[in-house]
Predict the 3D structure of the following.
Amino acid sequence: MGKAYKRIKGFADMFPPQSDHFTRMEACAREIFGRYGFVELRTPLLEFTELFQRSIGEQTDVVQKEMYTFPDRKGRMLTLRPEATAGVMRAYIEAGLVNREAVSRLFTTGPMFRYERPQTGRMRQFHQINCECLGSPSPLADAELIIMLMRFLRALGLEEPSLKINSLGCSQCRPQFRKALLDFLSGIDRSALCEDCARRVESNPLRVLDCKQPTCRELTQNAPVLLEHNCPDCKAHFQTVLDCLAAEGIPLELDHRLVRGLDYYCRTTFEVVSGRIGAQTAIAGGGRYDGLVQSLGGPDVPGVGFACGMERLALLLGEARTDLTDFYLFAPDEAGQAQAFALAQQLRMAGLGGELNYSRASFKSLMRQAGKSGARYCLILGQDEAQAASVTVKHLERGQQQTIPQAEAITYLTTEKNDD
Ligand SMILES: [Zn+2]
Ligand SMILES: [Zn+2]
C-alpha cells in the first residue's frame, strides 16, 4: 500500500451539499448581477506580491502575516491572491477599460488564500463573490450595488440579512475627523485598550472604533462620530444613498463603528450581517474606494464594490435539496449488458439522469445498491428482457414494477417524471 495523502490544513474538499451550495450561489450571482449590467471577470490566482502590498497596505495584518508568498524559479516574488479587488483593479487598468466604457461593472468569484488559524467558517483557502463598479462617483452607483447585493441574498433564500451602513467622509473632511478622534483617544487610558488597539492608536486610529473587544468598545463609547464630521457634499451623497435604499424598502442600521482602515476608502461603507450562526456574522462588506485605481498606477477613476464570503453564506443555506436521479439501470448477466449500455445512453440523450451499474454482482446485491442510489426507478435488464428487447421498471419508493418494451422506456420515465 502506498502512502495515503492528506489535504493541507485549512484547505477543504467540497462534496454535496456544500458543492451544490457553491454552484447555486454562483448561478444566482450570475443571474441577478447580470440584470444590473455586471459582467464576469476571471483574473489569475497568482499576482506579483507588490500589487497586494500597494493595494491592501504594507502595515495591514493581511500583508504582514497572512499572505502565501513565495519566489518563482526566477526569484520573482509572487502571492496567491488574499482578496479579489487588487487583481480586478490591475486587470481593469491593464486592459484599458477606462477608455472603452464610462462605467465598468465587473464581478468575479473564486478562491482566495490567507494563512490564518483555521476555524469554523474560516479556511486558508476560502471563496468570495466580488463586485466592483468602476467609473462613477454617483451615490446611485452605491445604492444600486447595495440593492443588488440584498436581492442576491434574498434570492438565495437568506431570511434576514441586515444591512449596516456608515459614511467615512472624503479627503476634505476625514482629516478633521481623524484629528478629533486622536484628541479623544489621547484622553483615554491606552493601557486599558487591547494589544491591537494600543498599536492602532498610532498607525490606524479609525480601526480602534471597530474593535470587537468589550473593553475597547466601552472606552470608545463617546468617541466622535464620523457622520457628524462629514462635509456638506459627503452628507448629501450619503443622504441620496439612504433615500434610494428607503425607496426600495431595504431596512438598514446606521453603524458609527463601521470603518475601513485605508485612505482610499471613502464615503459609503457597509456590511451585511446575519444572526443565524451564533453571534452575528458579517457575510458581505464593501464600500466606496475613489482613490484606489489611481494608487495602483491607473487613471483617477472612482469605484464602489463589495465582497461576499461564500463559506459563511453556505453555512446559512442549510441542507440543500438534492434532486432524485431518474433511474438506476443494471444487467445482472452477460446477455443484457450491451442493451443496458445502449439504453442508458438513450435515456441520457432524452434528458433523463441516472446511473448504469457496470458490475455483475448478484441480483440481490444490485437491488440493494439501486435502493441506496436515490433514484426514482430501478431498471432491470435480465436475460428474458434482453431476448424480448424489454426492460423491467420498478418504482423504488412505491415498489410497483412492470416490464415494458425498451423503446417505450423514455416515454414511460418522462411521463411519470412530469406527474411527480
Ligand atoms: Zn467630505
Ligand atoms: Zn481593541
